Amino acid sequence: MEISELGEFGLIDRLTEGLKPANDSTLKAVGDDCAVLRYPAGKDTLVTTDLLLENVHFDLTYVPLKHLGYKAAVVNFSDIYAMNGRPKQITVSLGISRRFTVEHIEELYDGIRLACEVYGVDIVGGDTSASHQGLVISITCIGEVAEGKAVGRDGARDTDLICVSGDLGAAYMGLQLLEREKVASAGQTDFEPDFAGKEYLVERQLKPEARKDIVDALEKNGIVPTSMMDVSDGLSSELMHICKASGTGCRVYEDRIPIDYQTAVMAEELNMNLVTAALNGGEDYELLFTVPLSDHDKVTKLEGVKVIGYVCKPEAGCAMITRDGGEITLRAQGWNPLAEK
Amino acid sequence: MEISELGEFGLIDRLTEGLKPANDSTLKAVGDDCAVLRYPAGKDTLVTTDLLLENVHFDLTYVPLKHLGYKAAVVNFSDIYAMNGRPKQITVSLGISRRFTVEHIEELYDGIRLACEVYGVDIVGGDTSASHQGLVISITCIGEVAEGKAVGRDGARDTDLICVSGDLGAAYMGLQLLEREKVASAGQTDFEPDFAGKEYLVERQLKPEARKDIVDALEKNGIVPTSMMDVSDGLSSELMHICKASGTGCRVYEDRIPIDYQTAVMAEELNMNLVTAALNGGEDYELLFTVPLSDHDKVTKLEGVKVIGYVCKPEAGCAMITRDGGEITLRAQGWNPLAEK
After folding, report:
1. What is the DSSP string of A210-247?
2. Taking chain A (341 residues) in consecutive chunks of 10 residues, what is each chunk's mean pLDDT?
3. What is the pLDDT of residue A31?
4. Do A34 and B47 touch (CB under 8 A)?
C-alpha cells in the first residue's frame, strides 16, 4: 500500500495501534503535542538521541528492515545502560522516501516494537514525514537512574581496574562479511550468501543487544563503576574518551582483550589484523567500565566481564601492552563518518 | 573550513563551546552517553520531537541558516507550551551533507542557541553525522509542567469557549510570498526580493515565536484550559484534532478568526481566499485552547487572545458559521507532506 493513501496521521495510527505503556512513569504516550512522563522522587532522568541515515549508517541491500528497527532502538537503550540507568521511553521520528510502502514501514516499526517489548520500553511519540532521499531514523530515549547514581565518563581514577563485557570486534567483522557478500552478489538474482560458521558475526552486526544483564549484575553485586561507556566507536576510541574526561592515562593488555573464535577466523580469512579489529571496530555495544581496585574480587566473579587493564596517571598516556611486553600508544581510529566521506 | 578537517567530535566541541546550563534541572549536558536531568518533585516531564528535512520542510534558497536553526528550536518549544508546560532542555541531531562548511553549521547552531537563550532552554545532547543528501535536523525538547497539570487535546467539553492567540494565516502567506520571489529571481544574480509592506508575513514564516507569553498570562489569571494545541497544521485541522480527541463538535465564527492586515492584502494580491488561508495555512504556532464558559470574563480580558467559537455536542459536527449565517463543515486540509509528494 502506498503511504500517501494513509497520509501522515493514518500511518501513525497504524504503526502505533495497540501500544500499551509498560511503565508507570508513562502517563501519556503517542497522540498529543507531547508525551507526559512522571518519574518518582529520587530518580534522575537520562536522555540520549541517535540519528541514522540510509547509506551512511545502514545499507538496505543487506539489512532487513525489521533488524534495522530493532538495532536503531537498542543502540539508544545501550547509551542509557552505559550511564548505569534503565531505558523507559523512546520517541521515533521517521523520514520516508517514496519507494517505501506502508508494509515496509510496518516491518521497520515491528523491529522497534520488538526491541521495546524485550527491554520494557514505551514508544511515547515521534514524527513522520516524507523524505526526498532515503530513509531517516531519529530516535530519542529517556531513562531513569537513582538520584545521583548516573555513571559518566569522568570518574576513572589512578589504579582503577578497566573492565569490558562480552567480546569485541565481532560486529565489525560481521560488517566486512556482509560487504563481501554484497559485492559477490552484485548482478545476480538468485545469490545465496554464505554465512556458514559465521552466524555470530552477522548477528552481532545486524541484531546487537544492549547489556541490561551487566547493569543488573553490577547492581546485584554492589558494584558502582567509577566510569562507564558503551563501545560504539571502538575500544581504543572509548578508552581515550574516558581517560580524557577523567584526566588519567591507561594500560590495557593485548592478551586480555576478549575476542570470539569466529572473529579470529574471519580476520584470518580477510588477512586483517585481529587486534586492530577489536580495538577499532565499532558497534559492539558492550560496556566498558572502571571499578576501584578494591572491587577486584567482586568484578572477577561476574560472568561475561573481563578485566583488561588499569587506569594510570595522565602523564603515562594511553597504551596497549603487547604480548611480548612492548607498548603501543592507543589512537582513536574509531568510525568517523564525517571525516570518511 | 571543511567539516572533515574537524571530524565529528571536533565539530561538536566547536558548536557547543561555552554552553552553560540555565536550568537547575540540567545536571549534565553535552559530553557523555546521556544527558542527566533532575526535575523537582511535583513536576511532570514533557517530551516532544520534530524532524526537519531539506526541500521537504525548508528550502535553503530563501531560508537563512540562522533563521532555520531558530525556527527548528522554537517549533519544539511551541509543542511544550501547547501542553501548558515550560521547555527546559533540547537535544539536537544534525545530518550534514558535503556542501556545508563548518561556518554554515555554526550559523545554523547560532540560531538554535539564540532561541535557547531567548526561551531559557539548555542544549543537552545530540548527534552529528554525515548525510549523503541535504540537511537533516532532528530536535527533541524536554519540558516540565506542574504534576497533573498538562493540558492535552482531549479535555474540551460541550459549551466550552474556543480561543486562539495572535492571528492566523500570515506564515502561510509569507511562504507564498517567498516562493513567488524565488520564482521571480530564478537565473538572476543580483535579484532584490521585494518585501516592502509585507515584512510581517516574511517574519512569521522565517522566524516564528512560541507563545510563552500566553501560557504565562493564563497562569497569572488563573485560567486552566480544558484542552490546548499549537496551530502548526492549520486551524481547521487542529480544531478537528481537539474535537475528535474530546468527543465533541464545534462552531467557529468566520468573522471572529483573527487575521492581520498584511495577510489580507497578500491574499487579495494572489487572488486567494483569505479565510481558506487562515483555516488551512499552517505554521502559525499560535495557541488554540478551550476554557469553561465560566471563564468568559477572564479570557476576554487577555491581551492577544480572541474567543472564536464554542464547543458543542459531537452529533452537531465541526463547522464554521459564515458572515451570512450559513454553516460550512470544517475539513482538515492541513499540510500533509506524506500525501502531497
Report:
1. --HHHHHHHHHTT---SEEEE-SS-HHHHHHHHHHHHT
2. 81 84 86 86 92 91 93 96 95 92 94 96 91 92 93 96 97 92 81 84 94 96 96 93 96 96 93 90 95 96 96 96 93 54 33
3. 79
4. yes
- Look at A37 and B57 and tell me if their CB atoms are within 8 Å: no
Tell me phi and psi for residue B297, to 5 degrees: -65, -40
Q: What is the DSSP string of B20-35?
A: ---STTEEE-SSSSSE
Coil, helix or strand for A203? helix
User: Using an 8 Å Cβ cutoff, are B290 and B226 in contact?
Assistant: yes
**Residue B322 cell numbers, joined:** 459564515
How far apart are the CA of A93 and the nearest CA of chain B, in angstroms?
Answer: 6
Cα separation, A284 vs A238, whole angstroms: 12
**Encoded amino acid at A224, one letter:** V
Contacts of B245 in chain A (CB under 8 A): 31-32
Return the C-alpha cell found at A237.
Answer: 576510541
- Indicate the residue of A39, A91, A95 with minimum beta-carbon distance to B140: A91
- Distances, alpha carbon B299 to alpha carbons B215, B239, B249, B309, B310, in Å: 12, 19, 21, 13, 13
Pairwise CA distance, residues B341 & B337, whole Å = 6
Q: Which residues in B57-96 are b (16+ Cβ under 10 Å) and which e?
A: bbeeebbebbbbbbbbbbbbbbbbbbbbbbbbbbbbbbbb
Best B52, B91, B236, B338 member to test A by mutation, with max A CBs in 10 Å, is B338
Torsion of CA A333, B31, B3, A95, to 10 degrees: 100
C-alpha cell at A22: 509498560
- Grid cell 580477510 is found at A270
Chain B, nearest residue to A85 by Cα: B34
Q: Which H or E run contains B46? A: strand B43-53
Asked if A338 and B3 come within 8 Å (Cβ–Cβ), the reply is yes
**One-character DSSP codes across A305-336:** EEEEEEEE-GGG-EEEE-TTS-EEE-------
Q: Beta strand B327-329 with B318-321: parallel, antiparallel or unpaired?
A: antiparallel
pTM for this one? Answer: 0.92
Determine how many CB atoms are found less than 10 A away from the CB of residue B257.
Answer: 20
pLDDT at A4: 81
Best residue in B3, B5, B6, B32 for a mutation probing chain A (most A CBs within 10 Å): B32
